[in-house]
Amino acid sequence: MSIKSFHPPQRVLMGPGPSDVSPRVLEAMSRPTIGHLDPMFVSMMDEMKALLKYAFQTENELTMPVSAPGSAGMETCFVNLVEPGDKVIVCQNGVFGGRMKENVERCGGIAVMVQDEWGRAVDPQKLEDALKANPDTKVVAFVHAETSTGALSDAKTLVEVAHRHGCLVIVDAVTSLVGSPLKVDEWEIDAIYSGTQKCLSCTPGLSPVSFSAKALEKIKNRKTRVQSWFMDLNLVMGYWGGSTKRAYHHTAPINALYGLHEALVMLQEEGLQDSWARHQKNHLALRAGLEAMGLNFVVPEADRLPQLNAITVPQGVDEAAVRNLLLSDYQLEIGAGLGAMAGKVWRIGLMGHASNPRNVLLCLSALDDVLGRMKAPIRRGVAVDAANAKLAG
């Protein structure tokens, strides 16, 4: 057997993640590896914490990247804040609310589900009603930006409802961080997690998290030990804490953290509000082109997530065949539907480094060609002009 080095093709990643990685991030990751307790690395860790605080808009002392993907960030929040017997209300409007339920139950908690239609925002009144019916609830959990559907919920209002009933709040911001307005301190979010592979323009494998003082108080005063040794924040804080003396917990993914540091430096250079505005502007151009073509969004405009666009597959079109042709003919990746939406939608991402006018126009032009070849019921030759008009406006 003679296996040679792997050289991946150059793709344009416009699916639900990972998104395109900035060349600056890839270059940063190629720099020399140093020890995870090296004073220079510890100094970089402090810079990264400060940059993550900016991204999350928080002063939370415990703001750091978990050394694993966004799913581990989710689990870190649940295993630290949910104890056996705790009642947790989980708002579900897509696939990832279901994963929250799974986490609650594996922690020994009792999950009370508040269901909303897939493709719609979480209804604050339904949460209010559930909290009144379950006054012993300890935690409320919801997804800010549901990646499976492209729906954006009103996190500020949902947190206010939960706090009125004395609950801590866990928020999934995997797809929303730096792509949509998110203000952890102003909205008083207790625990939040995200991922590096979406709007941060970084590689997969790290999960930024942030915990409020109230959440830390709960963690420090648990009646039971955290079931996960690796994710126990009482231990992790010794490594990511504020003191100059760091206690060894695990060998951090050093070069991956170089990449995240560079991505956050780039965010600082662009400006957080400008990042939010860029994602919105490119979404509006993509929307103009798709609607000119005759394609429809799954999510109503008021609930729509700019960086993840769920599009209904036209009648009679083989959605997988379209994705395969985009990949083979244009090196362009878009996403399929998940769960109840499998086979019914495409998910087009405009996240991070991939959120730019060139990608918007490439995607529209490629869809026009591929759908035209398939004799799909679309209006041909109008999408790119519509998007260009929006970009110029």
Automatic annotation (TrEMBL):
**Region labeled Disordered — which residues?**
1-23
Single Gene Ontology BP term?
Answer: glycine biosynthetic process, by transamination of glyoxylate
Q: Give, as one word, the top-level EC class.
A: transferase
Which EC numbers characterise this protein's activity in its record?
Answer: 2.6.1.51
Q: Domain named Aminotransferase class V: which ranges?
A: 33-337
Task: Tell me which cofactor or cofactors this protein depends on.
Answer: pyridoxal 5'-phosphate
**InterPro entries assigned to the protein according to its UniProt record, in alphabetical order:** Aminotrans_V_dom, Aminotrans_V_PyrdxlP_BS, PyrdxlP-dep_Trfase, PyrdxlP-dep_Trfase_major, PyrdxlP-dep_Trfase_small, SP_NH2Trfase/AEP_transaminase
| One Pfam family recorded for the sequence | Aminotran_5
As stated in the Swiss-Prot or TrEMBL entry, residues carrying the post-translational modification N6-(pyridoxal phosphate)lysine are: K198
SUPFAM superfamilies per the UniProt record, alphabetical? PLP-dependent transferases
Please list the residues that bind substrate: R347
User: Per the similarity annotation, which family is this?
Assistant: Belongs to the class-V pyridoxal-phosphate-dependent aminotransferase family.
* Protein's recorded name: Serine--pyruvate transaminase
Which species is this UniProt entry from?
Sideroxydans lithotrophicus (strain ES-1)
